[in-house]
Write a structure and sequence with these properties.
- The protein is built from 11 helices and no strands.
- The longest helix has about 80 residues.
- With about 325 residues, it is mostly helical.
- The chain has a domain of about 80 residues.
- It is about 80% helix and about 0% strand.
Length: about 325
């Protein structure tokens, strides 16, 4: 569950608002315990109870109220996903982003990392990978400046988002959807570079993984080679010998494949031609066989007709003799 820090120092401890927040926090803690015990339905009931409690809060614009609401919406989306109620989970994700958009404008230092964590959540719960990518692109507008912040919360949240995107890319690649996998890898690399402001070992490694995926698509091997050649100087500058060797080994594989490609195409073309000739020869033989059958049958038929005529003549001649007698 999402960690939310609240500043309750400005509340009167005897006030109704303070009591409401305390009750909601207690319900959330109970929900956390239920989740740890894999009791998702019980956890859901506690989160819903906390949200009902918040209805009686006096000021919906209060920043602590909204901070707690963000945490509960995050929890609700995760729990519904765990319960396989995907549609409801996605609705709550939309509500979460709507609340966060206003909060990062109000205090990006405090809420920036929560916005990035919500983006990471979207990569996990959105079943449509296209919608997940569209969501990320849309939220980049709000998060563009957040990656540059150096506070610990933003750094940790960004690393989690990058790793989540990377895992989605790996999953898509393993299922054979290479082009979609490359989109997620490209997004992970872009976000990671924005955070660090330079190319680090992590970006090099992810770029190598992306190139390996490209190599599985024949038409993209030249692009994979360009990508590897572009990242090689960075690997050399960082003195990462194992990554240098990995890049050069992949380049050798691509070169060997590209050399074999014309030979393979020629071989396939030759085989196709041979099959075509054999098929044509077979058809010609079959046609000739049919002609031979017709030729063979014709004389037999002619002879049968001839014999039939002779028999008829003999029969007629015999009748004539009998009548003369």
């Amino acid at each position: 569950m999402l960690e939310i820090s609240l500043n309750l120092g400005g509340f009167d401890k005897n006030s109704n608002d303070f009591r409401i927040i305390q009750e909601a926090l207690a319900a959330r803690q109970t929900a956390r315990d239920f989740l740890a015990a894999d009791k998702n339905v019980d956890a859901l009931e506690r989160i819903v109870s906390a949200l009902r409690t918040l209805r009686d809060f006096s000021d919906y614009d209060n920043i602590e109220f909204k901070a707690l609401l963000i945490g509960l919406l995050f929890d609700l989306s995760e729990i519904h996903f765990a319960l396989k109620d995907y549609k409801q989970s996605e609705k709550e994700l939309d509500s979460l982003f709507k609340v966060l958009e206003g909060m990062i404008k109000q205090d990006s230092d405090r809420f920036g990392h929560l916005h990035i964590l919500a983006m990471e959540l979207s990569t996990r719960i959105l079943r449509s990978r296209k919608r997940a990518m569209d969501m990320l692109v849309k939220q980049q507008i709000n998060a563009a400046q957040l990656y540059e912040k150096v506070n610990q919360g933003v750094v940790a949240a960004t690393e989690k988002l990058v790793e989540s995107l990377r895992k989605v890319g790996q999953l898509l690649a393993s299922s054979g959807d290479y082009r979609a996998a490359m989109k997620f890898y490209a997004e992970a690399i872009k976000i990671s570079k924005k955070r660090t402001g330079r190319v680090t070992r992590k970006e090099i490694k992810m770029t190598i993984e992306m190139a390996e995926i490209m190599m599985r698509v024949g038409s993209m091997r030249p692009r994979a080679k360009r990508l590897l050649n572009a990242i090689l100087p960075h690997a050399i500058a960082l003195e990462t010998l194992e990554l240098e060797e990995e890049i050069m080994a992949l380049n050798e594989i691509i070169d060997a494949d590209m050399e074999r490609e014309p030979k393979w195409k020629t071989f396939i073309h030759r085989i196709s031609n041979q099959v075509g000739r054999l098929k044509k020869g077979k058809e010609t033989k079959e046609e000739k066989g049919k002609e031979d059958e017709i030729t063979t049958e014709s004389p037999s038929t002619h002879e049968a007709e001839k014999k039939g005529k002779e028999t008829s003549k003999k029969s007629a001649h015999g009748k004539e003799k009998k009548s003369k007698k």
